[in-house]
Amino acid sequence: MKLLRNALAGLSILPLIAGCAPPPALTDTDGRIQVVTTTGILADLVRNVGGDRVLVDAIVPDNADAHAYEPTLRDVRNIVYADLAFSNYLMLEAQNVIKTLDANLPDGVEQISLAEGATKYAAEIIPLVEDVSLDTIWLGMRAKGDGAAHRVTRSSDVRVSATGVTGPGRMTAYLTESFGNPDTFLDSGDGFDPANGFRDDTMILPPDAHTHMSWAFTEPGVYRVTMRAELVVTADSKPIPLGDQTLTFAVGVDPHLTPGVTVLRGGHTDVTTDIDSGEIYLREDQDAGEKRHDPARTVIEVPAKALKEVPAGPGFRFLGRPGTKIYQLPQAVLGRHVHGEIDPHLWQDVGNAQAYTELIRDTLIAADPAGTADYHANTDRYLAELSALDAYVQEQIDRIPPPNRHLVTTHDAFAYLAKAYGIPVAGFVTPNPAVEPSLADRRRLTETLRHLHVRAVFLEPNLRARSSTLVEVAEQEDVRVCDIYGDAFDDRATDYTALMRFNADSLRTCLS
Question: Where is the signal peptide (predicted)?
């Protein structure tokens, strides 16, 4: 099981970026069980169950964003020495974190996805809800299916490439972080290079995931975008072709190009690559379920009302000069995050953290039967501590007057907190998060704060730099700006119980 530990130089290591602080050093000379987790929260749970019998390292350091973290060479070294590995998954972590973990664990070492496994221990899960209230279509990208016939794993890739665009102007598709910089996926302005496999115009998704997109066009008219998809099961396997299709966009013109076509003009639709059937199609979400559309008989409308101005700032120069008019289908949900169908932030409900704890206990017992009595005793103590924590969180939120219970944040990570303890999320999503919100967007946010008499808005300390608009509007309306922790520790919240107690105290203090 530990052969790889003597051959670190020969491991499959993904492109890595140097980190800030070295993690604990796992080793094969320590008598304890060596455990690697993806996040600090999971590491804390493991320490509470494992006690003195485990040595634990978290890949994502404190103050970092689990959705975007890039592993370091030190992280890889620790993974190589792990006897057990725990991730949250449900696509909480950046895909490179998952790939690095899975690629470098020694043969035979078990990797546990806690969010999925904990459902057997009565963890409750909540579907992610997209904002489909926009007055234009939201067009995302999706990889559908589990690829069982190809032996697909969570480290496999679905690559969707644009191979050509025709139309009267330039077309760009891109992703943005929450109020952050754009990341271009497709740009017809610099051509398409088949020599490198269209690498510069390729979106990479894990299986059974989807992401948000903005689509921009410089001139009115009809655009046709040719796309192809392929499945890469492992880093050294030959790509498996999954077909090709052409999408048609009617930009600022009549979308009824030919009789009988279906025009998509609103709601949530994904350009979908089905890795089980080998097809590319348009998947539309409807109240009665999903509906498939053949791209050859479908037109995506980009109406005249989608005309926007290119914002100032160097980050958007690829769209044109500031003030230039472009047609744009907005990215409907804040953030660049690639995700699945389930909200992955289960621990915001303490009951779910208890389910994680029980799964960790049983996994450690299976790996180290000699420690069974210790693991049971530690777990019983910690479950009692978590029960007291659960009651404390509820008590603090119950002390907030019901009319004041409105949670406004910029990161969609608190649905479990809202449901478990009765504090509805009243956050806003700008119709076009690719740019700083417009005056109209700021006005809507201002009206939300006024009409709901919101006492405070809540920002995660590690994401504060991305939340300038919410901070500015809150200060303008004399609304407090308070801290709340999502999925990262810092020097104030150094463990899970401290994090949840801080959140409960912050909510009660700022909203009462």
Answer: 1-18
C-alpha to C-alpha distance for 181 and 193, rounded to whole angstroms: 25
CA angle 165, 188, 264 (to 5 degrees): 55
Tokens, residue 466: 């991305």
Dihedral through CA 415, CA 416, CA 421, CA 425, nearest 10? -10
**Cα(201)–Cα(272) distance, integer angstroms:** 17
Q: Which CATH superfamily is domain 399-511 in?
A: Nitrogenase molybdenum iron protein domain (3.40.50.1980)
Element (H or E) spanning 116, and its range?
A: helix 114-117
DSSP H or E segment with residue 180? none
Query: Kind of pairing, strands 138-144 and 202-205?
Result: unpaired
- The CB density around residue 309, as the number of other CB atoms within 10 Å, is 15
- The one-digit pLDDT tens for each residue of the chain (512 residues) are 333 444 443 444 444 443 444 557 899 999 999 999 999 999 999 999 999 999 999 999 998 888 889 999 999 999 999 999 999 998 889 889 999 999 999 999 999 999 989 989 989 888 765 554 556 888 999 999 989 999 999 889 999 999 999 999 999 998 765 445 677 788 998 888 888 888 889 998 888 888 878 899 999 999 999 999 999 999 889 999 999 999 999 999 989 877 889 999 888 899 999 999 999 999 998 767 789 999 999 999 998 888 888 877 677 888 888 889 999 988 755 444 566 667 899 999 999 999 999 999 999 999 999 999 999 999 999 999 999 999 999 999 999 998 888 888 766 688 899 999 999 877 543 333 334 445 655 676 777 788 778 899 888 887 666 567 778 888 888 999 999 998 889 999 999 999 999 999 999 999 98
User: What's the DSSP call for residue 361?
Assistant: H
Three-state secondary structure string covering 97-108: HHHHHHHHCCCC
Phi, psi for residue 171 in degrees, rounded to 5: -120, 135
Fold of 3-125+345-385: Rossmann fold (3.40.50)
Rounded Cα–Cα distance for residues 350 and 348 (Å): 6
